[in-house]
Amino acid sequence: MSHYTPDDIAALSRYLKDANFPATRKTIIDLAVENGAPEESLEALAGLPERDYIHMDEVIKEIGSLHK
Fold first, then answer.
1. CB-based contacts of 62: which residues, under 8 Å, 6+ apart?
2. Are the beta carbons of 27 and 16 closer than 8 angstroms?
């Protein structure tokens, strides 16, 4: 995906609503899979740098910067 719309970000947030932060990229992806995220969302999450994310806002910001 080349650009995330506000609807895409809202959907991604729903797939990660139960995330406990801090969380690693793997933990975030595993939760998204568990919550039924579509392949497009999983691919976006797979592009996240491997590190600990302190808050959901960091995940969204990082995805936005990777997919402009």
1. 48, 49, 53
2. no
